[in-house]
Every structure is written in C-alpha cells, then in structure tokens.
Amino acid sequence: MVPGARRGALMDRSVLITGGSGYFGTVLAARAVEQGDTVRVFDLNPPDRDGPAVEFVAGDVRDREALHAACNGVEVVLHNVAQVPLAKDRALFDAVNVVGTANLLVAARDAGVAKVVHTSSSAVFGIPDSNPVTEETPCRPTSLDGVSRSAASASSAALAEAPRATAIAAASSTAAATVASGSFVANAR
C-alpha cells in the first residue's frame, strides 16, 4: 500500500472500519485508535464494550444509504465485511461480498474518501500450486466464498481505474499477520 498524504501534520485521520465489530475489525480499530485516528465502525453488531472508544454506525453493506452516511467525512475505509463460509447461500454471498463491496466503493467515491483498503481472503486462491502465495499467484477459487471474494476484488480493481476513483488497495488474509505489529494500519495512511 502506498502511504497517502495527510491533510495536516497535527490532524488525526478519520477511519471507517466496515465489519469493525468482528475479530479483525476490532484489532484494526484498536491499532488505529492507538495511532491517534478517529474511528467509526460500521457493522450489524455493536463493538465490544471493552474495546477502544469508537463511533458506532449500525448498518448493512447492502444498504446504500447507510453506507453513504457512514462514509461521510471519512478519509480512509478499511473494508472487512464479508459473508463467511458457514453460509452456503450463493445469493447471500453475492449480495454481501460482491454487491455490498461495490456499494461501499461507490459510497466511498461519492464521499471523497481518499483510500479504501479491501480485505479479502486466501479463499480467492483456491488450492495454489505452491506456497506461500504472492501477489502473482493466480486466483482459482473453488468455494462460494472464494468466488464471491474474487468477484469483489475484481469490482475493486475496476472501480480503482474509473474516473474520480478512490485509491483502492486489496489485502489478502495474510495481512492479518501484519496487524500485530501495527504496520497494516500504519500503511493504510
């Protein structure tokens, strides 16, 4: 990820974390707050009371109006919402992972968000020919989860190339390993 310019040396960055009440979102929120960022969590469920002080916005990525409101006034979005493999409903995977991601990207663009980091999953790789996977590893998803997340990543890439684009970076599940050091949140700057 390429560091983005901040508006002013003394200004905190405003960060929206979708799926911010889940495990990974909670870790990201804690790191962002530690770094002095103002954090807004967008999730179906409220964050844990023992977690960092954040603004909570209840919502669903399938709700365009809720996403537009959540993106208002935000500089960076860390997008972590995804339907997980426990669900076997193809329509739900597509509605949340593909359409929901597209809804978020449009809302972020319309709100003038400077950067969106889209967290994906190793499921997009299917069964890779070799490990570790890299940015050059071909995506050959074999599950509904992998197919929908691969399609969401393709939407992200397409929108990043569009006029008036918001800077979009994709992060695979291996990014979770870098969160412990705080470099993931720091690099989203």
A few lines on this structure:
With 189 residues, the protein is of the alpha/beta class. The protein contains six helices and six strands; from the N terminus they run E-H-E-E-H-E-H-E-H-E-H-H.
Topology:
Blueprint: E1 14-18, H1 23-34, E2 38-43, E3 55-58, H2 64-71, E4 76-79, H3 90-110, E5 115-119, H4 144-160, E6 167-171, H5 176-179, H6 183-187
Parallel strand pairs: 1-2, 1-4, 2-3, 4-5, 5-6
What gyration radius follows from the Cα positions, in whole Å? 16 Å
Tell me the β content: 15-25%
> What number of structural domains do the residues give?
1
Give the topology string: H per helix, E per strand.
EHEEHEHEHEHH
Distance between the termini: 9 Å
Across the major sheet, the strand order is 3-2-1-4-5-6
How much helical structure, as a percent, in the residues?
A: 25-40%
CATH topology: Rossmann fold
Second rung of CATH, namely the architecture: 3-Layer(aba) Sandwich
Tally of separate helices: 6
Q: Specify the structural class.
A: alpha/beta
Relevant CATH superfamily? NAD(P)-binding Rossmann-like Domain
Rounded average pLDDT: 75
Describe the main β-sheet briefly: 6 strands, parallel
| Count of DSSP strands | 6
Shape: globular
Report the top-level CATH class.
Answer: Alpha Beta
User: What oligomeric state do these chains adopt?
Assistant: single chain
